[in-house]
Design a protein that fits this description.
mainly alpha; globular
Length: about 70
């Protein structure tokens, strides 16, 4: 069951589904608009960091995005 949950986007792996990003942002007290901006921004970058490596944990990145907004 755990493996199925990870493969269905509930984990922190990239790229996430947009709905999971939205739920996470709402759980953190942010807005759906902020989640869309975040999702589109990193989606355009291919969910990669500045050096071009694939992100491992989008939730950590999202938390930072929300905290410093």
């Amino acid at each position: 069951m755990k493996q199925k949950r990870l493969l269905s986007g509930f984990g922190s792996q990239c790229p996430p589904d947009e709905i999971h990003v939205r739920v996470y942002f709402l759980q953190q007290g942010s807005t759906p608009e902020d989640s869309s901006i975040f999702f589109n921004h990193y989606g355009a970058k291919g969910w990669a960091n500045a050096s071009g490596r694939m992100l491992r944990n989008w939730k950590r990145l999202a938390w930072t995005w929300i905290f410093y907004k």
